[in-house]
Amino acid sequence: MRLIMSVIISTLIWACAPTSKLSWSDIAGTTVQPEEPVIFSIPSSSITRELKDTKPDILKGFPFVSAQPVINFNGKFPPEFYSSLKYRWNAEFIKSVDFWRLRYDQHMYDVIYINPVWIGELTIKEDDFLRNIAYSYNISDEQVQVLEKWINEGGILWIESAIFISSYDYNLNKFSDEKLKSLVESLRSMTLFGNKIQVQTFLAKRIDEFNTEKLLFEVTPEKNLTQQKVEGINKHVNKLLIEQTDYVGIYITIEGNPIIKSGDTVYASFANYGKGKIITLAPFDFKDVHYDGEIFRFDLLSWALNDRT
């Protein structure tokens, strides 16, 4: 019986088996083919807002001097104000000046400027303030002579004249009260283009061994300086702000004609040098819209460019 059942089952399996094999073409013909993928191209401008620089062109180079970064500075005034300002200028930081070209091209720059310095950048070797700045910036004596000649022939040297000392300089034994006193006395004995200089020192309040409170000092300038031929500079200036984030701020002005004066203290001044000018001023804040640091610089620059003798 077992033999008979095995024969029957084998016969059935053989009868059900396929008589031929499927080829690859048969398989391909019966398989569902994937559709061609569709790639959608969406312009980025349709899904993101295009960022446009709406800052007035005159602000892109303003202020050309500042101890603070000027990122995101869009000015205090409406666009009509900036479009009404017709004057333009070429200004360069003293460390980046091409002195050898300046020897033959008086009109290469309208203004050469000097920023405030940190005490670690300043080396004092002479009794002339400018030459100490030049030495600190690796500017040679011959290059300083080119600068002096350029000013004498009508150039404007603009100095935002401050020296800053942090609380770290004190606590790391780089400075002390005695060294500060000696530095201030040394500065007061210096000259700038043959003129004496005035020195003011502000100390911020110390919080602990390494930190100090930000010093905010408001200056209300006098308006009766017309005898110094600076008419118009102070017309729009009611309040100025000195913002000092370091422990010590030493502010220097050239003895000559005061521009910003409050009480007995001069915060900005100028002296003629041949056909040109040397301008010194404290680095007033320009971003705070409650103060007039921005319009002051515009008015001062406009006056200096138009008052060259």
Structure description:
The protein is α/β, with parallel strands linked by helices and 309 residues long. It has one domain. Helix content is 29%, strand content 22%. It is built from 11 helices and 13 strands. The strands form 3 sheets. A 6-stranded mixed β-sheet has the order 1-2-4-13-12-11. A hairpin with a 2-residue loop joins strand 12 and strand 13. The longest helix has 15 residues. It is extended, with a radius of gyration of 37 Å. The model has no long low-confidence stretch (mean pLDDT 83).
End-to-end span in angstroms?
Answer: 134 Å
Strand content: 15-25%
**What would the principal axes of the Cα set say about the shape?**
extended
* Spatial sequence of strands, sheet with the most strands: 1-2-4-13-12-11
Backbone CA Rg: 37 Å
Strand segment tally: 13
* Largest sheet geometry: 6 strands, mixed
The overall pLDDT average reads 83
Give the % helix: 25-40%
Structural class from helices and strands?
Answer: alpha/beta
Give the count of helical stretches.
11
Number of structurally distinct domains? 1
Low-confidence stretches: none
Short description:
The chain is an alpha/beta fold and 309 residues long. The chain contains eleven helices and 13 strands. The chain starts with a helix and ends with a helix.
Produce the secondary structure layout.
Elements: H1 2-16, H2 24-30, H3 44-47, H4 57-60, H5 79-83, E1 91-93, H6 99-102, E2 111-114, E3 117-118, H7 129-136, H8 141-152, E4 156-160, E5 162-165, H9 167-171, H10 177-188, E6 191-192, E7 195-203, E8 215-219, E9 240-244, E10 248-254, E11 257-262, E12 265-273, E13 276-281, H11 293-306
